[in-house]
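dumping the sequnces here before i forget
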Amino acid sequence: MKFFHAADIHLGAEPDKGFPWSKERGREIWDSFRRLIRQVGEEKAGLFLIAGDLFHRQPLMKELKEVNYLFSTIPDTKVVLIAGNHDYLKRESCYRRFSWAENVFCLWGEQEPCVEFPDLGAAVYGISYDRKEITDPLYHHIRPQRRQPLEILLAHGGDRTHIPFDRSVLERSGFSYIALGHIHKPEVLAKDKIAYAGALEPIDKNDLGPHGYIKGVYGNGGIRIEFVPAAVRSYIPLPVKVKESTTQFSLEQALVRLMEEKGRNNLYRILIKGEHAMGTEFDMVRIMKLGNVREAVDQSHTVYDRESLMRQYRGSLIESYVKRFDGRELSATEEKAFVYGMEALMASREE
Amino acid sequence: MIIRELILKNFGRFRNRSIRLEEGINIIYGENESGKSTLHAFIQGMLFGLRKMRGRAARTDAYTRYTPWDNPSWYEGSLRFSCGGKEFRLERDFRRGEEGTKLVCESDGELLSVKDGDLEMLLGGISEAVYENTVSIGQMKSRTGDALLLELRNYLSSYQESGDGKLNLDRALLLLKEKKKEWQSRMQIREQQQEAEEKKIKFEIAYLERETEELHQKLLEEQKREKAGEEELRREEQRQEELRREEQRREEARRKELHQENMPGTGGTLNWKKVISALLVGDVIVWGILFFTAGWKAACISAECILIAEFLFMAYTSTALKKAGKKEETKHAGQSMPDNTSGSLPKRKITGDSIRLLTAQILEKRTRLSNLQEELSELQMTGIADRPEMEEIRSLELAAETIQSLSVSAQESVGEALKNRISDIFCTMTGGKYKKVSIDEELKIDLFTEERHVPLFMASQGTIEQVYLALRIAVGDIFCCEETMPLLLDEVFAMYDEERMKETLGWLYKEKEQVIIFTCNRRETEVLKRAGIPFHIVYLHL
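..and the predicted 3d for all of it:
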């Protein structure tokens, strides 16, 4: 039997508020989800597991209808979902009132702790969020009840305020597979046993790396899972090193070329490093407009040889200034302060 | 340190030119453009190297400016000097920086290492900045009184603040302030953008709230209407009930009448017994009459017939009555039922539907509202936490604070010593004409003679220049205490009258080991000759 494990789809999210692509990203998240469901249908999967945060916030009725329709297009696949910290079961949540298609099973935690599918030989357990934060390690207490040969746990969380857990405790819990959600970066915690599917699409600028879902096969040999990248776009860190000869224009050209190379569609976080000529300051506003630039940080600075500065300016304030910032580990603020002050002093010294 | 010889192998306009210098006063005479500043730069370049700037600054740096006119790939020179009783030769290949520097002690033939700081030691630890500030003195740039005073004050203040007369702390602090302002405005712009975003959400929330309220009102109305409808329906039903009852009563009355008309005695079910008794009485009477008229037998037969007939009649009427009653009833029901279904029931269904729709809409809107409120609070949270500009602003503030605090401590440590030294130099230079130079906290300078006090702004330009010279020499004395350095004076005496020049040169001859005066006029030589002060002269030719 094939099964799909996705999490943190965040339908309804519009990442990068205020940026020109924000609305489009919102639509892309829906499109990605639609494509995933089509894929699930095409591969005739037995189970489609959604480990929380299907929605970015409380789902609207019309959104649920939309999702339910999509689920109803794969009637041969059992869809099992839990609510995460984003779409938690508020008292007035539409989740509670919605009547789902026959193949959809929600583990809202009202009756049984699991749903059983004797035809698949599987039981799926899970706990839904009824509030934004849960600090109890709830997953430590949940045990499979040996109802079916394949016993799966749908879990959401893993950080301090969202149902923290100990990896080793989960590993010993006896579940055949634990489908995790909440952490947006896909990660296998125990081979073919415990894994974060990661967000289907990156939801904010910190969701670096590939994104998609997990596809699993359950057979005689047990479980095999693999990560399938599916996101339309990625956030890509773009560090560039500048030299004294780098000018605004040459920097812009290099960045445009790099972004072109790595895919025009992706979203970039530019980090400028290295040394720049004295008095040169790059215009970040222009760089932000070069394309899909999500962020541009200039960490380049004039590099000073402290030793020779102190020698050259012995007896003057510049020497004491260098001394003040020398001979110890500097904080980021201090490092910057040194450079700013040095630049100002040198500039003031020029006739 | 005494500079013995400058050997310009290939430097600027000079090629294979050697210039010998002596102890005491040296006059280097040359017209404009004859290469005086080149010699200046050569001495500094030999002692400290020619710094190659990077980037844009490279176009105007000393290295580029003095690149040899002919054969620029050869860029060398040497300098012979004596120091601590020994003779040294310093050679530089300017293209190769420190690598191309060689320092030889000619007295014992020892090769010294510039890299290891041997030259620095010979220079008594004087840095290039100090050299620029003290050893090498140019004419004041400003020519007018006020600007001259300002320049003097600037030098004094920046020297006092930073130990570096070229450093302009006010300007540095201003630059930092400007930068800070720039970041602040950047932060402001971003915050405004965020505020706009917040405003948009708030507006959306307000709009949604209004919509929800309207829907809610509608719902209330609809509910009221439904209630009213039910009330009316009930009243209607009551009325109909009453009507039906009325009808029934009327019907009954009519039926009674009808029965009474058709068959007296069989008026209704209620007086059934009466009917029977009446019938029996009737029978007896009819039988009696027949008995008297037709005889016994006939009477008996007819009586039987009558009885049977009566029985049959009774049976018929009773079933007929019952049937009629049933018919009436069904007729009644059939009439009122369609009335009900065709009128109020669908209506109720419609109001029920719209209420359900409204409730769903309201719920949907409420969910969206709470989502928006969540978004808003998240936005506000990030606004507080994520302010990258603050980091820059803090760094700039730290830089400014550090500079300020350093300048204060520099002022404290060298201020007094400097003031005393200036006063000493100026008084001896003027041959005791002035007794004291006082410099107050605001760097206002006052000169005191035996009998009166002259604020510096009222003194002549020559006096101001002389104070300036005293100041530069005083600074040099404070910094170059380990090794006395030659004093390089560049067109310093232009504004001095003859008397002042004589006393100043006299002072220099007495106090300084070596003085190198660059000039483009002959006044200095004439004054020296007249005063009988020995000197060495070098002519630069075009």
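Chain A has two domains: 2-229, 235-349.
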